[in-house]
Write a structure and sequence with these properties.
Radius of gyration: 24 Å
Number of helices: 16
Largest sheet: 8 strands, mixed
Oligomer: single chain
Helix content: 25-40%
Strand content: 15-25%
């Protein structure tokens, strides 16, 4: 570690600017002093804190400290608790400097490693991991450390370039996420780092990366939320997950739609089998019966499903999708206006200028992460009429069908943001929507069963339909 710091003092040909990302949950006793210590390093040009709905007064302490007046700081509070991985993704997308440093909001991660991380980046590394097990790191002695050592040795059995997969203290180029499957990576808690490391190592041979030794410090105030056995099992499960191929996560859905469309089946033109069409189509027909006026079809694709839903009803359809070729296929299906746009970046301006009586999204939410899903609900609510409906069909992550597919590594569901039912409902309610009805269905059946509780769906239901009301 001292060698990296000495190199950093000599290496002056390239200035490295860092954005430090601090996901915080109940870190009021640590966050203010930690932020001041980090901002004292000349390499730190930006500090982004994402508070995950803390209950210990973390936002109030931050405001009282006066750090908001520092132009280098950004403080964001999640509308509800989204989890560690989603908070880090949100902070990463807000960053503006060339490199980002991800670390905890306590003192456990050694702040004195910041110059060493910056030095490794200045010497040409695009990805730098602070490792407790790298050569030069001091030995560990607690029982939890022995469990962590065993887990990391197990994870490093086939990938020896990284010796510490679970510490979550690393530096990366900010633009690394430009081609990353974010929905697959940033899920759950700390296991996001394992998915990210796997993806980085799998990008191409010779990817510029490095490790620096680090030491574990006392965390300071507050209470750790780490549960060694539970989270260790989550890491092992993440190691077994099927990693998406570089060419699949951006356009696999669009390609599948065209492939099915060329097959000549009107139902398969929506990208789903006849069995799937029967079940979800019956659900949609049930809930669309009372919808009138202007309807915005979110991620309309080639319009086949939206046109079927609007058939014989007094509706004015508007559609948005990010794929220009699919939108061409939707023309002539009864849409009043079609706009190209990526809903991960929000509603297009052309569509945000009018009011809608209903919104409809068919299996869209699993392509959005937590903050993106909340933003979709929030922006839809802002352009919704007084009694507007929001209908969404999504896969039931807890169903036996999807569990078996994920376990077997089949299909594409394993790298979508397969949100749990309570997560979807909570995001909609936080944006101002109220749940009016919830239904579940299985493959090949026209019958639908109303959900008894928003927190539970039958494991026999492969798909869910939720209707929210403004």
């Amino acid at each position: 570690m001292n060698g990296f710091r000495q190199d950093h003092e000599r290496h002056t040909s390239r200035a490295v600017e860092l954005s430090v990302l601090l996901p915080a949950w109940n870190e009021g006793e640590n966050i203010v002093e930690l932020a001041r210590r980090l901002l004292a390093f000349p390499e730190v040009r930006e500090l982004i804190v994402v508070d995950d709905e803390s209950t210990d007064g973390t936002p109030e302490r931050w405001v009282a400290s006066g750090l908001n007046a520092d132009p280098r700081t950004v403080f964001v509070r999640n509308p509800r608790r989204l989890g560690l991985a989603c908070s880090i993704l949100q902070a990463w997308r807000l960053a503006s400097k060339e490199y980002v440093v991800i670390r905890d909001s306590d003192w456990n991660h050694d702040v004195e490693d910041i110059p060493a991380l910056a030095c490794a980046a200045a010497l040409g590394s695009d990805f730098v991991v602070a490792s407790r097990y790298s050569k030069g790191a001091p030995p560990l002695g607690r029982a939890n450390d022995l469990l962590s050592l065993f887990l990391n040795r197990l994870l490093s059995f086939r990938q020896r370039k990284i010796t510490d997969w679970t510490y979550g203290y690393f530096l990366a180029r900010r633009d690394l996420l430009a081609s990353a499957p974010c929905g697959w990576i940033f899920r759950g808690r700390g296991e996001y780092s394992l998915r990210l490391f796997r993806w980085v190592l799998g990008r191409k041979p010779g990817f510029p990366m490095a490790e620096i030794p680090t030491r574990v410090r006392p965390r300071g105030g507050g209470k750790s939320s780490t549960r060694p056995i539970r989270h260790g099992l989550a890491y092992l499960a993440a190691m077994k997950e099927r990693m998406p191929q570089p060419s699949s996560f951006e356009s696999d859905f669009s390609r599948a739609l065209f492939r099915w469309k060329k097959a000549g089946s009107s139902t398969a033109a929506c990208g789903h089998s006849r069995l799937g069409w029967r079940s979800r189509g019956a659900l949609l027909a049930k809930e669309m019966a009372g919808v009138r006026g202007e309807v915005l079809d979110l991620a309309c694709g080639n319009g086949a499903f939206g046109a079927k839903a609007a058939w014989g009803r007094d509706l004015l359809l508007y559609g948005v999708d990010r794929d220009a070729e699919l939108l061409e296929g939707a023309r002539g299906r009864g849409y009043r206006e079609l706009v190209r746009g990526d809903l991960r970046d929000g509603l297009p301006a052309e569509l945000a200028r009018r009011r809608y009586d209903a919104f409809f999204c068919f299996e869209l939410l699993q392509y959005l992460d937590g903050p993106e899903m909340f933003r979709l609900f929030e922006e839809s609510k802002s352009v919704a009429g007084g009694e507007a409906h929001f209908l969404c069909i999504l896969p039931n992550r807890a169903s036996y069908w999807h569990r078996a597919r994920r376990w077997a590594g089949l299909g594409k569901e394993d790298y979508h943001c397969m949100h749990d039912l309570p997560q979807v409902v909570a995001a909609a309610q936080a944006a101002g929507w109220s749940l009016a009805a919830g239904w579940g269905c299985s493959y090949g059946k026209r019958q639908a069963q109303e959900l008894a509780s928003v927190h539970r769906a039958s494991p026999f239901h492969a798909h869910l339909l939720l209707r929210f009301q403004a």
